Predict the structure.
Amino acid sequence: MNKQDIPDIIISRLPVYLRALRHMQAEGKLTTCSQELGTGVGLSAAQIRKDLSQFGEFGKQGTGYDIAFLVDQLRKILKVERVWDVAVVGMGDMGHALSRYQGFSDRGFRVAMVFDNDRAKIGGQVEQFVVRDTKEIVTAIRESGIKVAMLCVPEAAAQGVTDLLVEAGVKAILNYAPISLSVPEGIYVQYLDPSIGLQRMTYYLE
Amino acid sequence: MNKQDIPDIIISRLPVYLRALRHMQAEGKLTTCSQELGTGVGLSAAQIRKDLSQFGEFGKQGTGYDIAFLVDQLRKILKVERVWDVAVVGMGDMGHALSRYQGFSDRGFRVAMVFDNDRAKIGGQVEQFVVRDTKEIVTAIRESGIKVAMLCVPEAAAQGVTDLLVEAGVKAILNYAPISLSVPEGIYVQYLDPSIGLQRMTYYLE
């Protein structure tokens, strides 16, 4: 099946299923069913079955899903059975937090390089990384083959740094700056703007 | 119109429109059109028009949208024409970063209270806040009437703290812990798990 045929809204749910399944694994469970998985992620069993059926036949009627098998399949589908090196740009609070974030290690990512444009920070140490000058983004990232970046620079700098990342060959950007980025076709951006997350919820509050 | 009638996927886009419109405002623009707004957020003009039409008639054929008016309307719809006090639980890197995050101030939110369960941190200062004991969550949040919280505790503590927040009357939780939370009906959770954002994109990479 052509991957363009599968709606992005379904793709967006796969990482959530994977996280819930890993959690079950950590609790020592071996099998689950769409009902239980649905409860864990706040969706109906029918939705789970429909989403997963896009990618093949993962469960057996009556016996449910083998968790380890489904985890393996989802990791392959999402391409996180490998580890992606990630560049972090912007060594403010958020960049610091991400550089030492423990939640990437077994989920397909590893911070490999960090950048800032502040003379006071360049050459200094953040965790095990020496902070590089953002001016080196194109050469350093090209050389290393990094395809994934996290953007934690101020709003005013975000588009300029994005242009450098794209020029460097980065294909996927997780953007913490509160601004919509312009990128060419074939470059993916996800936004982790806390205000957006909060505003999505206040709509529903009285 | 009953708000349950409007799909959540549309609600999820309104904060993004608002952010883009505020950005145009900051650049001194007075009017825009669905085409331009669409380009800014990566959606079609038709989608923008369809989404906004759920809430009324905001633009005029031929003249487009008055940005200030549309910003006001979206802020009212999302209930961020007021300022929501927010509690932050967990004073690790992420909690620290959020406590001093500058991006909330004119977007409807203000950090008002911070918590941790670490004796070494309780009573200490983070920004202008004195760190409170997580044991005080129920009394302190109830007393203050806070309805919104950001959860930055480790995975193992997240569900327990969530239960306290719900008991305290919190209705909306922005969760940074890499775990799906169980909450009763009428409580809203949004997840800001960076691994999830990254995995959504690696699916598309070669």
Observations:
- Chain A touches chain B through 60 residues (CB under 8 Å).
- The helical segments of chain A are 8-26, 34-41, 45-53, 67-77, 93-99, 137-144, 155-167, 194-202.
- The longest strand of chain A covers residues 109-116.
- Residues 34 and 49 of chain A are 6 Å apart (CA to CA).
